[in-house]
């Protein structure tokens, strides 16, 4: 069997986001499952749209996710040509000239204004999808010596059916009459996407092209180029759209979803969790389980299990998967990870011992969905605040508690060892002495000691708050 070679081919026009990460990741899994090669190649022919730093950022975020390229412009292999289109101008030029010599392509001197005028004319006649009128095709010799700039156009075969056997969609047919003669090399000598992509896939011996479904309409053009050169086509695999909860294509404007990988990093998501979630976008394993490692995904991968319908990006599930991965961290790993996301402008962690901080963060290990969420919980340990309106209302439901709370204060003041065990005992005794139990006991104690009606294990929380702070809290409410 031929060695599988798959590629992710980003343009350096933007950053790594959920959509292009899914493409990269599926190519990676597909290649690795079959012990093949995963290649990252840069499609940078549209130099004007290049964004400074986008490329470095894409590589950095892919590394972080564990989507590592076997070959890229950073790790090139000479036999496969350059890994960046801007380094291959001569190659495209030479191949375009070859097509002209074989009368499979031709020069076109029409100016953008002329093309636009003709388009308008066709639209006015009711033609919905105007095509190039082939004005230059029949004038090749006459104009050849002109020093006007020209594009090179591919001569689309007449009325021919192109079939793609897509791994996701099955057989898809296109009629060439729907496709006009398209430009393969622009007047500035830069190859267009549909031409360069074929040349590169052939040069790099790509066996499977896995990409987003927005490229399916480009595929017949690419098939024509393969045919013109007599090259073998790779297998095609067009992944269905990822949509947001309004069913629109996921984008940076999608309401509840976070779009860029760097944003997840900044908010304290784990790379294993992102990989895990994105691998389930438009692909599903045979088993019901949802938490898998990269190695498990590689092992389980099966190209027959791509979804045929769009997949909805679900932020709730993303968070759930991250919380599952956070639970797997050891105490030390969890502490080191979560600590990085504490907003130190709000919480003065330097004034506290590491041991204490670790115990505080551990209170939330089971419930945190992502690192930065820790900031929603730390106020009670670091800052002074008033009871919220909501908590005041809750507290008003408990009648005749003043005596109990005053006793609580006395008991706390005289407690020698302010640890969890003793505090549990203290609360139990308080209940007995005042004939209160369950919520009647715990809610008032929680609110008076912590100033919040929700929170983690009460005795542990009180011990971490410390005697002084707890007394201050009780006094401020009394
Ligand atoms: N540069 C193209 C993109 O970013 C890649 C298309 C392809 O994989 O053929 O969409």
TrEMBL record:
Pfam families: Anticodon_2, tRNA-synt_1c. It catalyses: tRNA(Glu) + L-glutamate + ATP = L-glutamyl-tRNA(Glu) + AMP + diphosphate. The keyword Metal-binding does not apply. Coiled coil: none annotated. Its main location: cytoplasm. This is Glutamate--tRNA ligase. A motif ('KMSKS' region) lies at residues 249-253. It is found in: Cytoplasm. A motif ('HIGH' region) lies at residues 10-20. ATP binds at residue 252. Monomer. The lineage of its organism: Bacteria, Bacillati, Mycoplasmatota, Mollicutes, Entomoplasmatales.
